[in-house]
Amino acid sequence: MVALDLRDLAKYSFLKEAQSFISANTSSLDQYLDSPAGRLAVKEAYEIVSASLRFNPRQPPETLPDVPSEAAAVRIIISAYPVSRLLVSCSGDRMLVDRLCRYQSWKVYRYLQEEDPRKKEVIAASLGLSGSSTEIPVIQYVEIASRLTDDRWRLVNRVVEKGIVKIHKDEIDEILRERLRVIMSQNLPLKVPPSLCISLQPVLDRIKVTIQERMLEEFGSVEESAFPPCIQAIIAALVQRTHLTHMGRFAVTAFMHNIGMQNTQIVELYGHVPDFDLSKTMYQVDHISGQGGSGTEYTSPLCSTMKTHALCVHPDALCSKVTHPLSYYKQKKWMITNPKKKNSSAGSQSGGDVPDQVPATADNGDKHEQRNEVRSTALQEDRKHDEDRKEDNKA
After folding, report:
1. Share of the chain above pLDDT 90, in %
2. What is the spatial distance between Cα 51 and Cα 113, in angstroms, rounded to a whole number?
């Protein structure tokens, strides 16, 4: 079997050989992190976590970090891997953990594309798989493919014989990538001594700033400044890791979907709450957006419903002129994008949800459509309440 060199361990830092290398070259973790090499490893780990927040989790990283030729620099990169795991574990943020796992597995996937077949076999064996076999046990396949969304990965679309799933040779690297992600996810977060987390707090604070910046970038395309006060309050509660009621979660999820946010982006909003469960959250978001279950696409609740559930907070002047958070968003967004027309339209409102000057395409359309929307929303809310009660009983 071919041997792996130091630069290979930098590319595949999850390998036991890499972890053994670190243990053999450090005394205690506290002392190492306080050493010059340890501080460089922490800095590199921060860059890894930051990169995991920036990349698209459904595509390979556009660029891969170069593996240096100097042995000392390679050792820093190898050491940065376990430090990055410490950082996400100390953060207490499940979404950050998931991001790191996805990023690291995608990096390995990219490296595997150009890897020596003999070395690929070593890496695959460390994951309990083969780097060349086109067969995989069905139980292992289901665990690996459960998060892959393409229809081709669904078990009903695969050839299964005597408990063995057939895969194409071109899919092997994808299977290895997902297997690595599953293993990483199962092993995180780590139980880190509080003293160690305290020493890493300055870096954790920088990571929090990066998370906030990224969220603002995501909301930029959907005009966050036009969100109604109720939605802003719910998002603030999510960021502050405050528990939300079922209706609060439903309202913000439906609202974000209605204005065009992708499901993966919506799920990431919940990554900061204490009881975050990735698979359950993804299921609920898919269900509300109509991509799962019955296929029903829900609309965010009416203002009257938000008031009933004590979710109508800090109402402003525009709130008194609308009956739906989506109407608020559309009007406010129009005002922001048409500042010169804002004043002239303010005096011409007739008490409805849309200024006379707003194009029909900027709001719900005619009165008939508005009435249908009200009836549809009410029915959807009743169905959602029943589903929430069933979910509570299951829990």
Report:
1. 49
2. 20
**Environment class of residue 345 by beta-carbon count within 10 Å: exposed (0-12), middle (13-18) or buried (19+)?**
middle
Q: How far apart are CA 47 and CA 57, in angstroms?
A: 17
Place of tokens 């509570």: 392
Q: What's the confidence (pLDDT) of residue 18?
A: 87
Q: What is the value of pTM for the model shown?
A: 0.63
Tell me the pLDDT tens digit for each residue of 248-303: 999 999 999 888 888 888 988 888 777 788 888 988 998 898 777 666 778 899 99
**What pLDDT, on the 0 to 100 scale, is given for residue 338?**
80
Please tell me the distance from the alpha carbon of residue 96 to that of residue 272, in angstroms, as a whole number: 9
Cα 147 to Cα 279: distance, rounded to the nearest angstrom: 9
**Segments of the chain assigned E as strands:** 135-137, 160-161, 164-166
Q: Kindly report the number of other CB atoms within 10 A of residue 247's CB atom.
A: 20
Q: Give the closest residue to 196 by CA, choosing from 33, 331, 322.
A: 33
Q: Is there a contact between 124 and 131 (Cβ–Cβ < 8 Å)? A: yes
The residue whose two tokens read 């083969």 is 130
> Is residue 21 a contact partner of residue 9, using CB atoms and an 8 Å limit?
yes
Token pair of 98, please? 């998931």
Dihedral class, residue 3 (left if φ above 0, else alpha if ψ from -120 to 50, else beta): beta
- Phi/psi at 242 (5° precision): -95, 140
d(CA 57, CA 36): 33
Alpha-carbon distance of 292 to 260, in angstroms, equals 17
Give pLDDT, residue 375.
40
Residue labelled with tokens 């990735």: 278
**What gap in Å lies between CA 193 and CA 89, rounded to an integer?**
10
Nearest-CA neighbor of 53 among 197, 203, 204, 210? 210
Return left, alpha or beta for 14; rule: phi > 0 is left, psi -120 to 50 is alpha, else beta. alpha
